[in-house]
Structures are given as C-alpha cells and as structure tokens.
Amino acid sequence: MEIFAGKNIHELRRDFGIRFAHHFRAVADGMGLLETKEFLGRDPGDERQFQAMVALLQKNPNAFLTAPDANPPKPQSFDDLFAGRGEWEESPVEQGRRDC
After folding, report:
1. What pTM was estimated for this model as a whole?
2. Burial classification of residue 48, based on how many CB atoms lie within 10 Å of its CB (0-12 exposed, 13-18 middle, 19 or more buried)
3. How far apart are CA 23 and CA 17, in angstroms?
4. Which end of the chain is more exposed for a tag (fewer CB within 10 A), N or C?
C-alpha cells in the first residue's frame, strides 16, 4: 500500500517508531526491567504534510474524508460520569434498585 509520500506502510511505521525514546530501569531486587516510552513529537515534515491535507480538504470537500473539526468538544473520560458525587455515594439508579 503506497501512501502520499511514496513510502509504504512499513517505512512509515519505522519512521514513526523513531519518534519515541525508550528508557529502562531496574525493578526492585533485580526482578527485571521496566520500560518507559516517551513521544518526542511529530516530525516537522509530517506536520507540514498534514496541514497541507487539511487545507486541501477545506478547499475541496470530500464525502469520504473531512478536515478535523476546528472546535472539538472537551475530551471526556469515564470519571466525568460521576463528577460531583462523593466517592461512595450511590447514583439515582442504584438508589432506585436499593429501594425496591
């Protein structure tokens, strides 16, 4: 599968893998190693290519592929479902089950 830059998927994956730093540290009592990966950021060339694609999609809308939303919603997490309640408070659904 060839991509826009003329690289195949394997070459793109290798290029992306280079963007990570790997750190190893010994676990207590010499029981092994623990690896941590750190993303070093996007390649400036990739960022320019992405911005060019966004501009192209905004100029020529495509039914299959669209430009990213300029105002995306705030990222949500599972914990947001329980915001404002104490750690051990029951939800209204749980209270209804208990009352039955």
Report:
1. 0.47
2. exposed
3. 14
4. C
